[in-house]
């Protein structure tokens, strides 16, 4: 079967990236990246096609990822620049996505400043000594660039290999990091987190403020090393009511976004189950608001208000359906996004581990073909 123009273009671009990225003048690389569909969409500018990338695109759905990660613990893999580079590049090579996202984990900066934690397979981050008191808070020191030299090295390698494909840096938002630290691990109901937030609001505010500084420092390292955009993941913030978010969380999130504003890179804010918080997520300072699959994009745009691009929001489980069904649901997302100032196609959360890689590749090609201008 004859390859589509999109696939032919993707293959050719992949070859250029691998062979000549290191020989291309830096200024030319920067110009190509700045003019990429992804960054143009973030800036709400006209695009040649709707850009696509996927949260968790570099991960367990790819057999090549499982192969290179075999026998290597998650946190160890995040500290090996060559491995980080390879994993980050894998979905770009395979799927032809419009942006790469730096392979890491939201708890990496906490580990880097000495927090005793580990990522347990099948569980997630587990903190040995949860933070529950003022004395516990003092264990959180500031993050210095020298704490994460592997990040700078890996991003330098990546930007040379990616050529004109943008690299997204990322970090965990203060609330989600606080939840892990206070609960001691993943939590369904966030009992200890909310007890601290309601019971000792000053300690809570100080905890989030310190985490905001750590998060901002981690993002600055990534931007200064070459990341073209950053995303703040607030995975657990959907557990909050809007009033609690505004009063007890937004000041810290805003502090993170304000800290990196002078770099001029797009700032994306994403949370799960945040339909009631979408306007506040934008108000916190993001240029792009990520939307999970529960709220149609046209309704999300109404809640967020003007002046923001939106990212999302196909249900990740849709990718297990037959191809025709995937295309139909993707078409619904594109139709809902038709009137947006800027739209980046993504899933409404991360790629599920058992997703067939070919389904993601076909989805990228479908969105590109349907939106080519």
Order of strands across the biggest sheet? Answer: 1-4-5-6-7-8-9
| Assembly of the depicted chains | single chain
Q: What portion of residues belong to β-strands? A: 5-15%
Number of helices: 18
- What does the largest sheet look like? 7 strands, parallel
Please estimate the helix content. 40-55%
Task: State the end-to-end distance.
Answer: 24 Å
Class inferred from helices and paired strands: alpha/beta
Could you report the average pLDDT, rounded to the nearest whole number?
A: 92
Please give the radius of gyration in angstroms: 20 Å
Listing every helix as H and every strand as E from the N terminus to the C terminus, the arrangement reads HHHHHHEHEEHHEHHHEHHEHEHEHEH
In short:
With 373 residues, the protein is of the alpha/beta class.
Protein model, in words:
The chain has 373 residues and is α/β, with parallel strands linked by helices. Helices cover 50% and strands 9% of the residues. The protein has helices at 5-20, 26-34, 37-42, 63-69, 74-77, 81-95, 108-112, 134-137, 149-162, 174-183, 191-199, 201-225, 242-248, 250-260, 278-283, 297-304, 323-336, 357-371, and strands spanning 100-101, 117-120, 124-127, 167-172, 229-234, 267-271, 288-290, 309-311, 343-344. The longest helix is centred in the middle third of the chain and has 25 residues, at 201-225. The chain is globular, with a radius of gyration of 20 Å. The two termini are 24 Å apart. The model is unreliable at 1-26 (pLDDT under 50).
